[in-house]
Amino acid sequence: EVQLVESGGGLVQAGGSLRLSCAASGSGFSFDDYAIGWFRQAPGKEREGVSSISSSDGRTFYSDSVTGRFTISSDNAKNTVYLQMNSLKPEDTAVYYCAAGFGPYYSGRFLWPAAMDHWGKGTLVTVSS
């Protein structure tokens, strides 16, 4: 069973920064075979893809709403993906989830929740104005 554990959420003022971590583990889980995506869900809204990274070659993709402010990275030795979030805005407030998806990495494929196979339980990010 694949396990994904998010950490690093919290309360921050607008304009501040946070770094989220997603640690992946599991029997038989090969980190390099998966893309890891970050998603978020604000109250009353649908879950949306924020960013994804191919664990095998480091290709990345970002949603328009976070391009230039968020950076995704991967430490394959630790089976961990990070999301550095800068210039945070109140509208970034949400529960952030990481997820793992198996298959070819292209375009924004792994920004679609339906493309993901395993999910973490989420970490809350609150940005105050």
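Next protein, fold it too.
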Amino acid sequence: QVHLVESGGGLVQPGGSLRLSCATSGKILGIKPMAWYRQAPGKQRELVASITNRDRTSYADSVKGRFTISRVGATNTVALEMNRLEPGDTAVYYCWITGFWGQGTQVTVSS
């Protein structure tokens, strides 16, 4: 069984920053691709950012230039640095690794 635990969500004003972290535990062999998704109320879950097992990154157009996904060393722990946050970024953010999901962390951008 694999467990993912996200942390770092919260309330921030527009233009502010947050850093999310996702730690993985359990039976995973080697470095795996990981990703961050988000789901806003009434909307489908969408891919925000991903990182391959060789640390190649990709981003949704809506967050390019504002969000950065990174891996902590040679581990299955990733962070999502979110800058210049907008109200439209408000959502529950989920971490993903090879078919497993975290419980989600709420990010609210509001003045």
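About the second fold: The chain has a mean pLDDT of 96.
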